[in-house]
């Protein structure tokens, strides 16, 4: 009985991990596409080097969005 529980738990973890990786790639791809469509002439890295706080906030919201997707993937 205990071995069956471990087996099912490993399978469930694998499925959630695959879902998380797929969701992560889809979300990053969609964010890159949206970024290129909305901000075609702005480089986020260059603006952050100049000290633009608005771009830093925008970049941090992107990272939070990706973290939320990864979290939901592990919750199953």
Give the overall shape, derived from the CA principal axes: elongated
SSE string, helices as H and strands as E: HHH
What does the radius of gyration come to? 18 Å
Strand content: under 5%
Distance between the termini: 23 Å
User: Averaged pLDDT, please?
Assistant: 80
Let me know the number of strands.
Answer: 0
* Poorly predicted residue ranges: none
Query: Approximately how much helix is present in the residues?
Result: over 70%
- Tally of DSSP helical segments: 3
> What is the number of domains?
1
The helix-and-strand class reads mainly alpha
Sequence-ordered SSE layout with sheet pairings:
Layout (H helix, E strand, L loop, with lengths): L1 H37 L5 H7 L2 H23 L1
Helix pairs in contact: 1-3
Structural account:
This protein is mainly alpha-helical and 76 residues long. It has one domain (2-75). The protein is 88% helix and 0% strand. The protein is built from 3 helices and no strands. Helix 1 (2-38) runs antiparallel to helix 3 (53-75). The longest helix has 37 residues, at 2-38.
């Amino acid at each position: 009985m205990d071995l069956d529980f471990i087996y099912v738990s490993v399978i469930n973890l694998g499925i959630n991990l695959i879902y998380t990786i797929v969701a992560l790639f889809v979300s990053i791809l969609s964010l890159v596409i949206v970024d290129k469509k909305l901000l075609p002439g702005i480089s986020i890295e260059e603006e952050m080097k100049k000290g633009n706080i608005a771009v830093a906030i925008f970049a941090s919201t992107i990272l939070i969005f990706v973290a939320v997707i990864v979290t939901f993937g592990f919750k199953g």
